What does this fold into?
Amino acid sequence: LTRRPIIGVFDSGVGGLTVLRELVRLVDADYRYFGDTARLPYGSKSVETVARYAVASAQFLERMGAEMLVIACNTASALALDAIRSSVKIAVTGVIAPGAERAAQVSRTRQAVVIGTEATVSSHAYCRELARVGLKAREKACPLLVPLVEEGWTDHPVTEQVARIYLDELFAGESQDRDEDVLLLGCTHYPLLRPLLRRLLPLALSIVDSAESTAQAVAAMNSPGGHPASPTRRPPGLQFFATDSGEKFRRLGSRFLGWELENVTHVDIDHG
Ligand code: DGL
It folds into this structure.
């Protein structure tokens, strides 16, 4: 048996399991997932704080044997990717560039809208990355969506109402030169809202999900020839670490991952 690569996946909590779910589907590897559940949410915190937490978490995964790192957290990718890269020796992939590149492939009008946490949106990391691939973008923070998804209200009238308000604000007002045809989901939790958002959005808007785009990018890096992970392969080795209760991580996590999760270890790491 050939040894598989060990991929470390980092998120502020359970949301990044949406990225892990896509990775497991597309990339034949063993995984170590770290959720910094004791310190979440990252989405409302400052660059300095997020960078400090993210660097310590990335170094933890490197110590646990990760040979490459996927920063599943959009907020950490937006605010701290450079800091993370310079603090570890292994290759680091964030979710922003793959999401932006996928949006560029999908968009005909070269205009996109992005939704994410407060911190991701204020950093304008998506706008910069989209500009680099030739797209003009507007961004909107949707802070209430994360707690609603964690509550399990992914198809609930209250969530629909909240999402409708955010989208109305996003698309309010007329503008001659506005012609967006892509909505980029710039937060780990939003893939779970995809069906609800799809119902609310005009058909002309395609949804691009940074979780899926990132897994596709990692798959392309791991098998440049483009061999898809075989459906008959051995199931991946999965190990989970959480800074808050392992039991809570297990409970919430299964919803994000879509199957029951085992091997959760509670860890206490020093965030400097
Ligand atoms: N993981 C975060 C993100 O993708 C959302 C949750 C949080 O704010 O910590 O931006």
The mean pLDDT is 94.
